[in-house]
Amino acid sequence: MNPSTALKSALVMFLLVAVLAVLLAVALPKSFFEDWGWLSGPAALLLCAFGTARVLGLPVARTLFGVVIAGVPGLLGVVTGVHWLGTLLAVVAFAVWCGFGPEPRRL
């Protein structure tokens, strides 16, 4: 495992998720997330993973597959009603996945 890649992946992903979450919270009503959160949450994670891959120079397909896998432990937080914990678990699992991958081409 490459700890540097894992840390960079975690930081970039967390930053992208935080920025997107704030933008969506400002732009959309709470009812949108109550009705469409099951779709918008995973779509947001995929978008942020794509951004992380591009920023760090990671293989895009492998990185997107990794965020799908990372969503599984992330579901634990969502199912238990602690959404922020699910997001944190998904970001950590994603970072570990990226740490076991190839060296990034950037940063």
Distance between the termini: 17 Å
What is the global morphology?
Answer: globular
Number of helices: 4
Assembly of the depicted chains = single chain
Largest sheet: none
The fraction of residues in strands falls at under 5%
Helix-strand sequence = HHHH
Q: How many distinct beta strands?
A: 0
Mean pLDDT figure: 92
> Share of helix among residues?
over 70%
Could you name the ranges where pLDDT drops below 50 across 5 or more consecutive residues? none
Radius of gyration: 14 Å
Plain-language structure description:
The chain is mostly helical. The protein has one domain. It is 83% helix and 0% strand. It starts with a helix and ends in an 8-residue tail after the last helix. The mean pLDDT is 92.
Topology record:
Layout: H1 3-27, H2 30-56, H3 60-79, H4 83-99
Helix pairs in contact: 1-2, 1-4, 2-3, 3-4
Keywords:
single chain; 107 residues; mainly alpha; 4 helices; 0% strand; globular
